[in-house]
Design goal:
Elements lengths: L7 E5 L4 H14 L2 E8 L9 H7 L4 E6 L1 H15 L14 H15 L3 E3 L8 H12 L4 E3 L10 H10 L13 E4 L4 E4 L32 E8 L2 E5 L2 E2 L2 H14 L4 E7 L5 E7 L1 H17 L2 H19 L6 H13 L5 E8 L2 E8 L7 H4 L11 H9 L1 H17 L8
Parallel strand pairs: 1-2, 1-4, 2-3, 4-5
Antiparallel strand pairs: 6-7, 7-12, 8-9, 8-13, 9-10, 11-12, 13-14
Length: 417
């Protein structure tokens, strides 16, 4: 294919396999200056030595953007409040991409770049998430996605290319899992995980990075208490924390107790099924605690409708539609439901299990007087007869009508005895 020439390309750079080979590849094929941009969303040691590596492989400069606090407060917390998930997946990669893409566009504009490049595959979801955000913030910007057309059409070929070009890698053909790590989670895909018949090697040394398997968790339960203000987690175990610190704290506790390991075959946006193993220890705890608090603070109709909205919210985030009007509107709805979601939730963590221990709120709608099986003076049980008569009136009318028709026509109606 004919290749358009660019003067300056900004590359979304993680230092992983795909983006490591992209720097020299882009220079070879486009003759452009390559500016690498890395976003620190909590991947920790993966950022070590990244600037030296980027420049050594041909980048003119590397931006490392610390986005952890913004990621936690403006993307993670709104999703917790919404209860958004996708087929039980807690959206760890999904809601990290919009903030990364937003900041990459800012750098591209600042540098006067002609194009933005990324290393997402043509089979995955991330290409959509990155490019929808780019279209939102820079609709006229060209996007280069080599995985859709280049000759390095397998991870094995990428490794061979890297070795031929002296690009240092932390993986080999034998440890070539595709991983994505951030403050919220760690995902694992590829290799033996591609066959759902293979058990995930969660007990294999070095596979899990954020914690241990349930089998290797302590034999003694750990209790954790979380405080929420209007749906926002603000403290854990009596210590006030910002969202970033709180997620990190719960990651430690959850990981040590084997919490938040999910092995699923999910339906990708592009249509295929994909198997992934996710580690989300702190996030799983926060979702469980927030849901428990909503049990006593939301009325039935709001709770049931919010569950519908949560499913749609999760789909939007998974599909890269964070910056759409509908996602923003759903967040506005969610915020209105959270006015009374204030209180404390205590959970017992034991070998991968989260067991509710207690929940309290000044806005609790739960009345022990109403619910008790003992004698009470606030609920007249005789009222239920009239309620049932009215609630069951449509069924009664239908049954009487069927019986009358059966008598007139002689036809059998299955529901009429």
């Amino acid at each position: 294919m004919a290749e358009k020439k660019y003067n300056k390309i900004v590359l979304a750079y993680s230092g992983g396999l795909d983006t490591s080979v992209l720097i020299p590849w882009l220079k070879e094929h486009y003759g452009a200056e390559i500016i690498a941009v890395s976003a620190d969303v909590g991947q920790g040691a993966e950022l070590d030595g990244l600037e030296e590596k980027a420049k050594k492989t041909g980048a003119s400069k590397l931006y490392i953007l610390d986005l952890k606090k913004e990621f936690a407060e403006e993307y993670i917390v709104p999703t917790i409040k919404a209860g958004g998930e996708y087929e039980k997946y807690l959206l760890g990669t999904s809601f990290a991409r919009p903030i990364i893409a937003k900041r990459i566009v800012e750098i591209a504009k600042k540098e006067g770049a002609d194009a933005i490049a990324h290393g997402c595959t043509g089979k995955g979801n991330d290409q959509v998430r990155f490019e929808l955000a780019i279209k939102h913030f820079a609709p006229a910007m060209d996007v280069i996605a080599p995985w859709r057309f280049w000759e390095l059409d397998s991870r094995e070929k990428e490794i061979e290319y890297a070795e031929a070009h002296n690009i240092p890698l932390k993986i080999s053909k034998e440890t070539n899992y595709s991983k994505d790590k951030n403050l919220w989670h760690l995902s694992h895909e590829g290799l033996d995980l591609e066959d759902p018949a293979n058990e995930a090697p969660i007990n294999k040394e070095g596979f899990l990075e954020l914690g241990v398997s349930p089998e290797n968790a302590p034999d003694k339960a750990t209790y954790v208490e979380i405080h929420f203000e209007k749906g926002v987690p603000t403290a854990a175990d009596g210590r006030e924390m910002d969202a970033l610190s709180l997620v990190e704290y719960l990651n430690g506790i959850g990981g040590a107790n084997g919490i938040g390991i999910l092995d699923i075959v999910e339906n990708r946006l592009v249509g295929m099924k994909s198997r992934g193993v996710y580690e989300t220890p702190g996030g799983t705890i926060l979702y469980a605690a927030h849901s428990k608090l909503e049990e006593i603070t939301l009325d039935k109709e709001t709770s049931h409708f919010k569950a519908i909205a949560a499913q749609k919210f999760g789909e939007l985030v998974y599909n890269g539609q964070w910056y759409t009007p509908l996602r923003k509107a759903l967040s506005a709805f969610v915020d209105s439901t959270q006015e009374t979601v204030t209180g404390d939730v205590k959970l017992k963590l034991y070998k991968g299990n989260i067991i509710p221990a207690s929940v309290t709120s000044p806005y609790s709608l739960y009345s022990s007087g109403m619910a008790t099986f003992d004698e009470d003076d606030c609920y007249n049980q005789a009222d239920s007869a009239g309620f049932i008569n009215l609630y069951g009136l449509p069924l009664k009318v239908r049954a009487l009508n069927d019986a009358e028709l059966a008598a007139k026509t002689g036809k059998h109606f299955p529901d009429v005895e």
